[in-house]
Design brief:
The protein has one domain. The chain is built from two helices and two strands; from the N terminus they run H-E-E-H. A hairpin with a 4-residue loop joins strand 1 and strand 2. 0% of the residues are buried.
Length: 79
């Protein structure tokens, strides 16, 4: 709870949602949560998404630098 910077009510809400979507399991005997196979798959897919988003962001910045690297002269209107 302390590492997440959430209060108990907020943490419970998120944990309940993760259990409901079967991303984690709660084990009452050990009073602990474990990640399900579905949760591990989601984590891998999300990491892949973030890596792709980061690469696209880098490409976007490179394109912007490329397009703004040369000051374009205004095109003279044909007489």
């Amino acid at each position: 709870m302390y590492q997440s910077s959430l209060n108990l009510k907020q943490l419970k809400k998120y944990l309940d949602e993760l259990v409901l979507t079967e991303l984690i399991n709660y084990r009452p005997a050990g009073r602990c949560f474990t990640t399900t196979d579905r949760g591990r798959t989601f984590t891998k897919m999300f990491e892949n998404y973030r890596e792709t988003a980061d690469l696209l962001s880098e490409q976007e910045k490179a394109l912007e630098r490329f397009l703004t690297s040369r000051a374009k002269k205004p095109v003279a209107a044909a007489a």
